[in-house]
Structures are given as C-alpha cells and as structure tokens.
Design goal:
Chain lengths: 765, 112, 82
C-alpha cells in the first residue's frame, strides 16, 4: 500500500496530462484530479512522509499535521472549484500554469524543511506569473513587476534560510525566532508574499490584469501559503499583530478609493490577510485558530467574489465601476451569488465569514489587546462598506447604464454556486471547519451577544453608507501606492529639477547631465558592438592582469631545472609536428588547406596523447578530429568561398600583439606550473579502488563511467543541448525579415525604426 | 620536454587567438578548434609524473602509473569541445544565411 | 466627484435612513437584554456599542479615505504611462 501521495504530485501529474485531453476528458481531468487530491487527504494519518537526507540535512516533503492538512483541504478544494469555473478556457497553458501553481502551493504547505519550502515557493512564483501574463498584452509589464518583487522576496528568503541554517545547523521548518538577520530575512520573504506594505504593491498591480479565470487561482494561493508559513514559523511574534492591523486598514482605505472592480477586491485581499496576520501575531490558540479558519473561509469567498466580478468582465468587457451599473436585472444569478460572497466576507451570520472572522477578534480581545480589537473591527466595517456595499452598488445597482449583459455560461455559474454553497454550509455547520483547526476549539459563534453585535455593526455601516452614498460614487482614477518608488520614483530622480533656478552656484543638474553623457560615451567606446573589439579587450585584459599579478607576487622561473630533462625523439617529433601544423592552419590562404591543417594538428595531438600514456584519449581524439574535419568541410557548402582577407596593417599588428601576449603568458604559466607540485594527487585512490570497487582495470574508463559518472552525465547533457541548438538553428525560424538583417549589421537602429520598417514590410506584402 | 611542452601550448593558444581575431567567420571556428587542443594538452600535461605506465592495471600493483584523473577530464573536454565547435560552425552558417555576410567586422551588436 | 442628488433621491434616502435607523434602534434595545460573557474591555458591557462604533467607523472610513485620496493618492488613469 502506498504510504502517502503528495497532493502536489497529483497536481503536477494533472498538469502534465493537460496537453493530451479534450472535451469530456478534459473536464474529468481538470475537476476530478484535484478532487481526488482533496479526498486523498482524508486517508492518511499525520506524520512525516517523504524524508530524504541530502548532504547531512534532512529534507521533509510531507509534513502532515492539522495545520498543514487544513490548508491542503482548502487548496485542493479550490483547485477543483476553480477548474469548474475555468472549464471554458481554451488556452491549455493557463490550466497547466494554474495546476503547477497549485502544486507549488501544496508543496510549500507540506514542506517540513526550509529547503523544500524554498523550492516550492519559487515554483509558485514562476508559474503564477503566467496567469498574470495570460490576461492579455497589456499585462506584460505588470507581470514583470510581479516577478521582480517575488524574485526579490525569494532572494530574501533564501538568504535568510542560509544564514539561519548556518546559525542553527538545521533546516527544519518550525518556529523561527524573529531575531538575528536570518530570522528577519525569512520573515520579510514571507511577508512579501503575504502582501504586507510597503512591499505589497505587486498584488493590486498584477491581480486585476490577470486572466479572468487565472486571477481566481492567483487570489487563492500565494497569500494563503504565506499565512501558513507565518503561522508555522512566526506564531506569536508580536510585530505581526501591528503589521496585520496596518494591512487590514491599508487595504480597506485603498479599496474605498478604487475604481477597477478587481483591483478593489485585490486591495481587499491585503485587508483580509491582515486579519490573519494579526491573529498569528497574537499567538494564542484561539487567535491562530481564527487566522486559519479565516484563511480557509476567505479563500472560498474571495474566490466567489472574484468569480462574480470576473463574470461581469467576461460578459460586459468592462472593468471599471464608473462604466458599470444596473446589472442586477440582466445578471441576477451573478448578483445573487456575488452577494452571498459579499455577506460572507462581512461576517453576516449563517455564512462562513461569521464563524471565522470573529475568532481572530475574540482572540485579540482575550489576549487583552484593545487597540487591535478596535482597529480590526473598524476594518471589518470597512470590509462590509467597500466590498459588499460600494462595489455591488456601483456594478449591480446604481445607475443603469444600459449595458448589454446576461448571466455567464453554466460552468462559471456552477463554480460560483459551489463556492457559495460551501460558504453557506460552513456558516450553518461551523463544526465542519472547526474540527479541522490546529488547536481544539472552544468557541461558540452563535451567541445572542455575538449575533446582536454583528447585526448592529453591519446595520450601522449600512446606515452610514446610505447617508454618505453621494460621497462614494466611483471615480475614474487610480491610486498611487508604494510601487510608485520603482515605477515613477526612479524616473523622477533621474530628472532632478534644480530647485533654485537661476542660481549659477548650484549646477547640480548640469553636473548630473554631464556625468550621464560621459558614462554613455565611455560605454559606447568600450562596447562598440563589434566582436573583435570585445575579444581584444577581454583577452588582453585577462592576460595582462595575470601577468602583472604574477610579477607583483614575484613568481619567477628557474630555467636550470627545466633544461635538465631528457627528451625522446618521438616527443621532439610530435612537438615539432604540432607546432608546424598549427602555423599551417594559421597561415594557409586556402580554406581547405587550413581545415586540413587543423585536422592534422588534431591527429598530432592525439599522437601526443599516446606518448603521454593515454591511449583512450588518443582514440577519442582521432575520432573526434576526423568527424570535425568532415563537418567543417560539409559546412563549406553553406559558406562563401573567399577566405583570404585584406587587413589593415594596424589591425594586423593588434592581432599579432594579442596572440603573442596570449602565447607568452600561457607558456610562462605552464613553465611555472610544471615545476611545482602543490597538491597531492588523488590518483592513488582511483588506482587502488578501481578494480576492487568497480571491477575494471582500465582506470581511466572506470573513472569516467563510475567514479565520476555525474561528470559524464553532464557531458552528455551539454552535448545534447548543443545538438538541440544546432537543430534549432538549422531548421527553425527560417524566414527572417530583411530589416532584422539591417538591425544586426548596424546595431544602432532604434527600436521605433525597426518597428516602422517591419510595418512597411508587412504592408508591402 | 619540460621546456618544449609549454612552448607547444603557447603556440596552440597564440595561433588560435590569432585566428579568432580575423574577419572571416570560418577562421573563428578554426581558432576555437586550436584553442581547444591547447587546453586539452595543457590539462593532460598535469598528469605527467615522470615516466609512467599507461593506467591499465595488471598484476604489478598500483604504483608507477600516469595520473588517470586528468585523462578522464580531458576525455570529457574533448567531447564538449567538439560540441562547441559544431555549435559554433552551425551558428556561422546561420549567420551567413540570415545576414548574407561571413565577415564579422560588418556585424554589429548593441552599442553601449 | 460626488454626484448631486435629485429630489426623488432625497426622499428615497430619507425613507431608507428612517427604516435603518429604527431597525438599529430595535437592535440596540435588544442588546440591553443580551447576556454578556466575560467582558474583556469596558465597552463590551455597553449595550448598543457595536451600532455606535459601526456608524462612527463607517464615517471615519469614508471621510478619511476620500480625504486622503483627493489630497494626493488619486491620480488620472494614465499616470504611469510614459
């Protein structure tokens, strides 16, 4: 019986199978496999599975306990429900990306050590960015910024892991103290994914431009995985409380101002995750239970909300509150299901939000943090206001702009319906969720006090909404967020304006301009774009610096010891032959002669190998040389016949000088090296063990095939890659626009010029 | 021997570099071939422990053999060198096909 | 910008406000009878506190966010396009 199946593997397997299925098979695959993963979670008991020891560290792929299991439940569930919603999507790449993304999230959840966590973390980032890019051409820049921030976060995480592992000596992923550089870096890496300001701007930047179905998945996994790792690693870290509160309020404020309907929800994710982070910060059992319950419920109702808005965009093509309105008549089902999500997120009783959100606040209250309680309640009111009142008012109610719309196709409605059903189910039977929570639950949401309190809060907010409605009309603007720094701030800095115009003393702007000009000229001179130029510079720099270095170190040769060696006739002969054939290759004016001379050089070198006691090498060299010569001769068919060239004397001087430099430096170093015996050779080990361990007598072969088998494996890999590259170069992209030839021949063409020329080509055809 | 071997290596490297700096794209390929040879010869010379026997074990124990490790490494290097040569060759063909010139001094990449 | 309200809207609004306010009043009254569990903070034992807080919260949020938005956060749509 199989010990355990990693749900991530199920998702990856599903992704691998996607290209091969269509029609009904596709539906079964996409919905069924994640559902299978969901059910499989119920079969296996807690424990550590998939434990490997790599290089002295213990890598755990499957750490199953209550905390990881509950997240896995909701992730697999979401995978299935999301796929129902996304069934109509034709681009298989989207499904593949979403499944790999989900698999990455599951992998992170079950990772018991920091190393596998990091691997799956990066898998998540690199697969989710495709869901952003599938949103259309305009999303390219957003996706790039998303990737930038996530890579930065990943680097912080990696740095933190390395430092932390160095300090503690283990990579086990359990509670991490937020002290010391390692712990802080890991925390920052986690918080970036959670969407904590100031490094949160990627979320409202990327989520609204992703594909309609892709954003559903985006909103489900990254931030909640971050919540999980924070709960696992930093539970009770007090600073998280305040970070969470700031997040909760920040998200709501921006949501109030936002016009783009999905961006509003994206800011809202930050707010809700803030609740979770705050709960983790409080650290009591109740608070963490609350954070986890909130995460579970949130994934579902946020997905429902996103699905609702996604359906609106799908059917109307409009994304802004200023352009929408009055859709409740034409899209009644969407409206209804959306409102279920909206009420859920606001904590209306009998829905999932009510039983989860209040746990966090109660946890904070029980731990005696009055400000946290008040501010989170404030944010909760804001949630209701922005997501459940302002947004549906702008989209569904409000001015009827006469937009043509209808309810979206069946699978999308079904997806929404499923999510809504679960929200209601959990609201009515909270124990279903409570029994999954990591700590035992002694919380009873349905008390008179609590019910009354919730209704009061909601009604009072509704009252305020009604009173201040005139102020809450959607405005066609975007809000500046912290990504201003790398979007506009950098540009602004470059164009620093001289605040004191006219005063000649302060020439700061001119200085900057001059500096920029100078550096541009320098780099244009160094990087002229010509290969030869680059080669000359690189080679001479390396050789000269090596030479200078050795002079500086005072290394010299003792020529006497070198003179006293015996030289056999065969050695002398081989050397003379090699030297002459090399000179022949260089000097011959006919291309065939030059190539054949190269071949001869190879043959003589092979003979040299024989003299050095390396028969296998000689064999290989002969074969390879023969094939190389044949290959080059074959290539003659495709290359022009001229071979001689006229070079300017100055150019020729440079060539000779550089080659002489190279030759002399190499000779010099070789002479020095031959005399020294710095390290002990490891040959004795191989010679002794070759027959005993590997059963072979030809030690070189044994080394290649057995002792250093990985080297050979990579050699084969490199060879295959070269072969692939060759195939690609010969067969692919055969038709190339002449303009690209222009651009290559004269690298100074600007991008616009190239585009113009391509346009001209296209229209003239 | 100890004096001539470095000279041979120097000639190989120098000659290869000279060819790589020439204009014809085919010479670039030939230059690479020469430099590969130079590098391989250099590597294998590090295994020369005086006069030694070919490292194939017989009944005589494990002494007095030439170092087998550089030989193994050079074997790998020869193969990879060949792959690189073939790749560069096909690249040259492709460049000529697309840009209609086999003179690399006419081809210009990005400036600055 | 805030839309100007037509007279009919004013009437509708007044009606809604009245209904909501009375519902709220009822809830606050009921709250007086609700059994209190351990009150963590002083406000837990005040009946109708959630209602008052909710209203104030709403007001603060609306005015604060719109205020800060109009002050410097909100820009035209093509602000980032160079």
């Amino acid at each position: 019986m199989i010990e355990w199946i990693h749900p991530a593997l199920v998702f990856f397997a599903t992704a691998a199978l996607v290209p091969f299925v269509k029609g009904k098979g596709k539906s079964i695959l996409l919905i069924g496999f994640p559902a299978l993963a969901f059910f499989s979670l119920m079969l296996f008991p807690d424990g550590n599975y998939g434990v490997f020891t790599i290089g002295g560290f213990e890598v755990v792929f499957g750490r199953v306990d209550k905390l990881s299991r509950v997240f896995a439940y909701v992730f697999t569930l979401m995978g299935s429900v999301g796929m129902v919603y996304a069934l109509h999507v034709k681009q298989k790449g989207q499904h593949i990306a979403a499944l790999i993304y989900g698999g990455g999230a599951l992998g992170s959840i079950f990772a018991g050590d920091l190393l596998s966590l990091f691997v799956f973390w990066e898998i998540m980032a690199f697969s989710s960015v495709f869901l952003v890019w599938y949103g259309g051409e305009k999303s390219w820049a957003n996706g790039l910024r998303y990737l930038m921030v996530h890579t930065f976060g990943g680097l912080c995480l990696l740095g933190g892991i390395v430092i932390f592992a160095g300090q503690t000596g283990s990579i086990a992923f359990n509670a991490i103290p937020a002290s010391g550089l390692g712990g802080w870096l890991i925390l920052i890496g986690f918080l970036i994914n959670a969407g904590a300001p100031p490094l949160h701007a990627w979320l409202p930047d990327a989520y609204p431009v992703g594909s309609i179905t892709g954003t559903i998945f985006l909103s489900s996994f990254t931030t909640k995985t971050a919540v999980y790792v924070l709960a696992r690693g930093f539970a009770g870290t007090e600073v998280l409380m305040w970070v969470g509160v700031i997040m909760a309020l920040y998200g709501v404020v921006y949501a109030m101002l936002e016009n783009n309907i999905r961006k509003l929800l994206a800011y809202h994710i930050i707010s809700q995750v803030g609740f979770m982070v705050a709960g983790i910060g409080v650290g009591t059992e109740l608070a963490i239970n609350g954070a986890v319950a909130h995460a579970f419920a949130h994934i579902l109702y946020k997905a429902l909300l996103m699905m609702g808005m996604g359906s609106v965009i799908f059917m109307t093509g409009k994304r802004k509150g200023t352009e929408l309105g009055g859709l409740y008549r034409t899209m009644p089902l969407t409206f209804g299901l959306f409102m279920v999500g909206g009420f859920s997120i606001s904590g209306v009783p009998f829905l999932s939000g009510f039983i989860s959100k209040s746990m966090v606040i109660s946890g904070a209250a029980a731990a005696h943090y009055p400000f946290v309680v008040l501010l989170l309640t404030l944010a909760a009111a804001g949630t209701f206001l922005s997501t459940t009142l302002k947004l549906p008012y702008a989209v569904f109610m409000g001015e009827d702009k006469g937009i043509k719309a209808a309810d979206p196709p069946g699978n999308m409605l079904l997806g929404m319906g499923l999510a809504a059903f679960i929200c209601i189910l959990l609201g009515v039977m909270p124990n279903l969720l409570y029994q999954l929570l990591p700590f035992p639950v002694d919380y009873h949401p349905y008390t008179a006090e609590h019910l009354l309190g919730s209704f009061q809060l909601l009604l009072a907010t509704l009252l305020g909404f009604t009173l201040f409605l005139y102020k809450l009309h959607p405005e066609n603007t975007i809000s500046v967020d912290t990504d201003w720094v790398y979007r506009k701030g950098v540009v602004w800095f470059q164009q620093l304006k001289n605040p004191l115009q006219g005063i000649k003393v302060l020439r700061y702007k001119d200085f900057l301009q001059g500096l920029t000009l100078f550096s541009r000229q320098v780099s244009q001179r160094i990087q002229s774009g010509y290969l030869k130029h680059a080669l000359v510079m690189i080679i001479s720099f390396v050789m000269l610096s090596t030479l200078l270095f050795s002079l500086f170190k005072g290394w010299t040769l003792s020529l006497d010891s070198l003179m006293q060696t015996d030289l056999t006739l065969s050695q002398l002969l081989v050397f003379v032959l090699i030297i002459s054939s090399t000179l022949a290759t260089v000097l011959f004016k006919s291309r065939i002669a030059a190539v054949l001379s190269l071949g001869m050089t190879g043959f003589f070198v092979a003979f040299f190998y024989v003299l050095m006691g390396a028969p296998d090498l000689a064999l290989t060299q002969y074969l390879v040389e023969a094939v190389s010569v044949i290959l080059i001769l074959l290539a003659f068919y495709y290359l022009p016949a001229y071979f001689e060239e006229k070079t300017a004397p100055a150019s020729k001087m440079t060539d000779i000088a550089v080659s002489l430099l190279v030759g002399i430096v190499m000779t010099f170093y070789m002479l020095m090296v031959m005399d020294s015996h710095l390290t002990k050779s490891i040959a004795s080990y191989y010679l002794e063990m070759s027959e005993k361990l590997a059963g072979g007598r030809n030690v070189v072969n044994v080394v290649i095939v057995d002792f250093r088998g990985f080297d050979t494996m990579f050699e084969i890999a490199v060879f295959s890659i070269a072969a692939l590259g060759i195939f690609g170069m010969l067969k692919l992209n055969k038709k190339k626009a002449p303009i690209q030839r222009e651009a290559a021949l004269n690298g100074s063409l600007k991008r616009e010029q190239i585009e113009e020329a391509v346009q001209r080509e296209v229209t003239s055809k | 021997m100890k004096l001539l071997l470095p000279v041979v290596i120097g000639v190989l490297f120098g000659g290869g570099t000279y060819l790589m700096l020439k204009k014809n794209i085919l010479k670039l390929v030939l230059g690479l071939g020469l430099i590969s040879h130079g590098a391989n010869v250099l590597l294998i010379s590090s295994g020369w422990i005086g006069a030694g026997a070919v490292p194939i074990l017989g009944q005589d124990g494990t002494e007095g053999f030439v170092d087998p490790v550089p030989q193994a490494l050079v074997l790998t290097a020869i193969v990879i060198g060949f792959a690189a040569l073939a790749f560069l060759l096909v690249l040259a063909i492709r460049v000529y096909r697309d840009l209609k010139t086999a003179d690399i001094s006419e081809i210009r990449g990005q400036r600055g | 910008m805030s839309r100007k309200q037509t007279p009919e809207d004013q009437v509708k609004k007044k009606k809604r406000v009245k209904v909501l306010a009375s519902m709220l009043g009822l809830l606050m009254f009921l709250d007086w009878f609700a059994p209190r569990h351990h009150a963590h903070f002083f406000w837990d034992s005040i009946p109708g506190f959630s209602a008052v807080f909710g209203f104030i919260a709403c007001a603060i949020l609306v005015f604060f966010s719109k205020g800060i938005g109009h002050a410097f956060l909100m820009k035209r749509e093509d602000y980032y396009d160079d």
